[in-house]
C-alpha cells in the first residue's frame, strides 16, 4: 500500500524523462500519493522535476506543491511560468498552503501571481492570510471553514454544507456563529446526521469551544492542540469573530520542528537543517557554534596558563583535565536538557525555581558523591600522589555541583527574559562549564599541593 | 477560554479539600477540561487527588484517567477500589486508553478488573487489545470504529451510524469492508451527506485507503500519519481484516516522545524523565551516562600519562587539551545529531552512506580549516613557541576530521545493525572523541616538538 523510494525507481524514472517518454513517466507517478511524489522530486534535478511536475493533473500538482520542502519549492517556482502556477495550482490549494507559497515570493512576484488568480474570493482569502506573521495562529490557519448560523435549522445546514463543502477536502467540525459572525460553538457532523432535519442549530450545538487569537504563537497553538487532543482549532480576531481554522497536520510539523530545533541547538546546530542539505548550508549552521567552542578553548588555555608553574611542578594534574571538563559538560547538558524540554512541553507546572533548583542540587549531590568517590578509589590504588587523589576528587565534586546549578538556572533565567532557553544548551553551556570547571580544578589542586 | 494553573488555585482547592467542602470543590473543577483536571491532580497528594477524583462524573473521570501521566495513574489505581474503576470509569473510556490502563496492572488485578466490566463486548475488545505489544500499531489502536459493508445503501449506513456511533466521541472516517471483513476503502461523512440515500456504498466509497499491519512499530505509524497528513489510520491483520484504528492524538504523543527521547539520549539521559520527576528517578536516568564519562576520563588520563615526559618538557601542550577535547566533542555531536534526526524523520532519502560521508567530510574540511587557521593566527601572535602553534593547529584539524567521520559513521552503522542510533550521540561519542582526540593531539605534539 505504501510506496518505497528506491535508487532503481529513480534511475528508471530518470531514463524515461531522458527519453521524453511522457506516457510511461506519467504512469509511473500518477497513482502515487502527493507526499511520495514530493519525495521523488527531491531526488531529481530541477529540469527533471519540472518535467514530471508538469505531467501531473492540477489537483495532484497543488498537493505536491504543498508537500515539497521549502527549498525545493522555491527552486521550482523559479522555473515555472507564474501564470501556470496561479491558474493551474493555486486554485486547487488550501488557502493556508497557498499563502505559505506566495509569502515566500518577492513583493513583485506576489502581485503578479495574485493578478492571475481568477476566483476573487480565493485571492482575497490569500491576501488576508499574507498579513499574518508566519509563526502565529494567523499564519498557520486556513480559510476553509464550514460555518453555520445559530438560527438555521439542520435542513438549511445540510444544504449550506453541500455548497460550502465543495472546495473542502475533509470536514472535521462545523462552526456555529451568531449574526455578528462571532464564534459561539461547534456542531459535530455526527450530531447533525443524528438530529431531525427540523431541529434548530441553536438548540443542538456544543457551546464549549476552544479557540485561539490570530496573534497566538505557533508553539502555543501546538501545545493547546496536543494537550486537548484537538483535530482542528478555530482562530478568532480580537472581538471574537471567526477568522479561520488550524488543522492538526500543520501542527504536527510545528511539534516535530520545535523538538528537533531544541535538539539541534543543544547539538550546536544553529539553523534548521536537514541531513540532505548542501555542504554550504550545513557549514553555515555549524561553524558559528564551533567558533564559540574555539574561543572558549582559547580562554581555557589562558586559565591553565595562569597555573603553569603549578603544572610544571606537578604535571600529573594535567592528566585529569579532560575528565573534569567532560564531566562538567555532561552534567551541564543533562540539567539544561531537562529544563528546556520541560519548558517546551509546558510540563514545568507551578513548582518554584527555588524548589526545582533544590531538587537538581539533591541529584547533583548524589551523582557528584558517587562519581568522586569512585574516582577517589581508582586514584587511591593507582596513583602514588595523595595530593593528586584528593584534589581531583574534591574538584570533580565541586565542578559537578556548579555545572548542575548553571545548567538549571541559566535556561530558566533566559526563559524568564523571553529568550529561547535552548540557547543555554550545547556549546554555550559546555564551554562555560569547561572554563569555570578548569578554574575550580586548578585552584583546588594548587591548594592541596601547597597543603600536603 | 483556557485555564491557567496557578499556585493560588491549588492552595484554594487544598483548603476546600481540607474542609471536606464537596460542593465548592466540585464547582471549582467540574467545568474544566479533563486535561486541565489531570494537571491539577498532578499537583495534589494522593489522598487529595483521590478526593477530587471521586467527585467527578463518570465521563469526566474516565477522560481524566486517560489524560494523567502514567506514574500518577498507577498511584491512583492503587488507592481506588478496583470495582469502582471498572464500573465507573472503564466503561466510559476508549478501548485503547482502557487497554493502556489495564496493561499497567499485575495479571491478578487485570483479571479482577475485567471480571467487573459489565459489557461483555467492551471487555472482549480490551482483552483483544492487551495481546498487542505497546510499541506497535496494535498497541496504539482503539476498537471504536464505524464500519459499513460495501453492499449497503447510504440509508442503511445512516441507520447503522446512529447505532454504532453512540459510543464514539467523534467520527473521522467511516470504513468500508467486504463480506469477509476485509478493509476495502473509506467513505467520508461529507460524501455520505451529499449522496442520495439510495446510493450504494460500493459505488461511492474511496478505494484508496492507507492502512498498517498490527505489528507495525509505533514510530513507523507516526511517520506514515505525519507524511500523509492522516487524522486516523486503520489497522489490519495479516489477511487484511480491519482490526481497529489509530487516531492522530495518540500519534502526536509518539512524535513528541520520539523527538524528546533522541534529545535526551544525546544529553546523556537514559530513561524518559520529566522535569518534575523525583530525585531518585532522575539520578537513575543520569548516573549511568556520567559513569561512562568518568571511565572515559580515566582512560583519557592514561593517554596523557603515557606522554608525561613530553608534557614535563613542554607544559604548554597541556594548555590546549580542553580546546582539543571540546572541539572533538562539538563536531562529533553535530554530525551524529544530523544523522540521528535524519533517521528519525525518515528524511535520509536514498543517498548512499558513501556520498553522505563525502559531504560530511567536505563540511569538516571547511570547518576544520577555518578553525585551525584562526587558532594558528591567534597562537602565532600570542605564543612564543612555534612548535606549539603548529602542533595545536594541525592536531585540531585532524581531530575535527576524525570526529566528523566517527559522528557520521557510528550512528549509520548502529542503524544498519538495528540498534538505536541515538546511543551513538551524547556521552558515548563525546568520550570516544575525547580519547582519540587526545591521542592524536599528543602524538602530533610529540612529533613536532622532536622536529623543531
Automatic annotation (TrEMBL), chains A, B:
Identify the PANTHER family for this entry.
MAGNESIUM TRANSPORTER MGTE (PTHR43773:SF1)
Q: Does the keyword Calcium apply?
A: no
Q: Quaternary structure per UniProt?
A: Homodimer.
- SUPFAM superfamilies, A to Z: CBS-domain pair, MgtE membrane domain-like, MgtE N-terminal domain-like
Its gene is: mgtE
Q: What is the protein's given name?
A: Magnesium transporter MgtE
Identify its membrane topology class: Multi-pass membrane protein
Say yes or no: keyword Transmembrane present.
Answer: yes
Amino acid at each position: 500500500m505504501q510506496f518505497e523510494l528506491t535508487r532503481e525507481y529513480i534511475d528508471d524514472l530518470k531514463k524515461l524523462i531522458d527519453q521524453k517518454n511522457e506516457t510511461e513517466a506519467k504512469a509511473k507517478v500518477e497513482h502515487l500519493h502527493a507526499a511520495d511524489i514530493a519525495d521523488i522530486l527531491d531526488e531529481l534535478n530541477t529540469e527533471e522535476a519540472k518535467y514530471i511536475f508538469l505531467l501531473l493533473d492540477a489537483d495532484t500538482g497543488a498537493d505536491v506543491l504543498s508537500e515539497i520542502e521549502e527549498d525545493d519549492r522555491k527552486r521550482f517556482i523559479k522555473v515555472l511560468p507564474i501564470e501556470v502556477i496561479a491558474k493551474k495550482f493555486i486554485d486547487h490549494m488550501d488557502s493556508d498552503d497557498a499563502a505559505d507559497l506566495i509569502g515566500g515570493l518577492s513583493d513583485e512576484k506576489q502581485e503578479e501571481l495574485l493578478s492571475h488568480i481568477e476566483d476573487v474570493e480565493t485571492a482575497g482569502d490569500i491576501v488576508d492570510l499574507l498579513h499574518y506573521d508566519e509563526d502565529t495562529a494567523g499564519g498557520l490557519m486556513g480559510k476553509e471553514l464550514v460555518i453555520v448560523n445559530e438560527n438555521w435549522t439542520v435542513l438549511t445546514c445540510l444544504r449550506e454544507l453541500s455548497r460550502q463543502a465543495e472546495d473542502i477536502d475533509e470536514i472535521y467540525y462545523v462552526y456555529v456563529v451568531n449574526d455578528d459572525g462571532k464564534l459561539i460553538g461547534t456542531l459535530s457532523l455526527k450530531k447533525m446526521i443524528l438530529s431531525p432535519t427540523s431541529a434548530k442549530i441553536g438548540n443542538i450545538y456544543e457551546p464549549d469551544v476552544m479557540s485561539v487569537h490570530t496573534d497566538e504563537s505557533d508553539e502555543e497553538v501546538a501545545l493547546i492542540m496536543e494537550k486537548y487532543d484537538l483535530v482542528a482549532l478555530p482562530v478568532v480576531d480580537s472581538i471574537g469573530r471567526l477568522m479561520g481554522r488550524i488543522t492538526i497536520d500543520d501542527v504536527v510539523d510545528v511539534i516535530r520542528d520545535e523538538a528537533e530545533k531544541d535538539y539541534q541547538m543543544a547539538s550546536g546546530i544553529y539553523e534548521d537543517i536537514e541531513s540532505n542539505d548542501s555542504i554550504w548550508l550545513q557549514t553555515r549552521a555549524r561553524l558559528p557554534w564551533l567558533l564559540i567552542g574555539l574561543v572558549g578553548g582559547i580562554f581555557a588555555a589562558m586559565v591553565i596558563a595562569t597555573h603553569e608553574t603549578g603544572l610544571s611542578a606537578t604535571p600529573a594534574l594535567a592528566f585529569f583535565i579532560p575528565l573534569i571538563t567532560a564531566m562538567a559538560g555532561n552534567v551541564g547538558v543533562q540539567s539544561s536538557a531537562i529544563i528546556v524540554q520541560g519548558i517546551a512541553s509546558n510540563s514545568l507546572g507551578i513548582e518554584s525555581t527555588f524548589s526545582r533548583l533544590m531538587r537538581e542540587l539533591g541529584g547533583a549531590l548524589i551523582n557528584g558523591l558517587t562519581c568522586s568517590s569512585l574516582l577517589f578509589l581508582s586514584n587511591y590504588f593507582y596513583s602514588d600522589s595523595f595530593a593528586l587523589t584528593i584534589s581531583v576528587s574534591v574538584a570533580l565534586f565541586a565542578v559537578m555541583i556548579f555545572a548542575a546549578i548553571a545548567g538549571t538556572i541559566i535556561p530558566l533565567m533566559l526563559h524568564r527574559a523571553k529568550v529561547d532557553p535552548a540557547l543555554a544548551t550545547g556549546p554555550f553551556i559546555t564551554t562555560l562549564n569547561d572554563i569555570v570547571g578548569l578554574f575550580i580544578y586548578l585552584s583546588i589542586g594548587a591548594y592541596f599541593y601547597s597543603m600536603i
